[in-house]
Amino acid sequence: MNVRITSKGQVTIPLAIRERFGFMPETDVEFVERDGLVVLERSKASKPDRADQLIRALAGAGDGVLTTNEIMRLTRDYDTAD
User: Fold this and answer.
1) Over the chain (82 residues), what is each successive 10-residue block's mean pLDDT?
2) CA distance 69 to 47
């Protein structure tokens, strides 16, 4: 994949790369030189990114008393009138 550096030194990380490696908006990254190559990696000192925050916020949200069959019945009956 070729990308062009703007006059401000900016590049757009292609969507396929962002998705594959989990580079969500607000993710802190670093450019690191390794064996004569420049490598983009997630910053070790970064704060949790948006995806991490969402996962933490939803942790435990599924702790309910409905059985799987009850949940499936609710989702299947969603479009039907009682």
Assistant:
1) 92 92 85 95 75 80 80 75 52
2) 39
Longest dimension (CA), the chain: 67
Q: Cβ contacts of residue 1 below 8 Å, gap of 6+? A: 14, 16, 17
Q: Please, are residues 31 and 43 in contact by the beta-carbon 8 Å criterion?
A: no
**Cα–Cα distance for residue pair 33/39, rounded to 1 Å:** 6
What CA–CA distance (Å, rounded) separates 62 from 34? 43
Alpha helices in the chain (DSSP H): 15-21, 50-58, 68-76
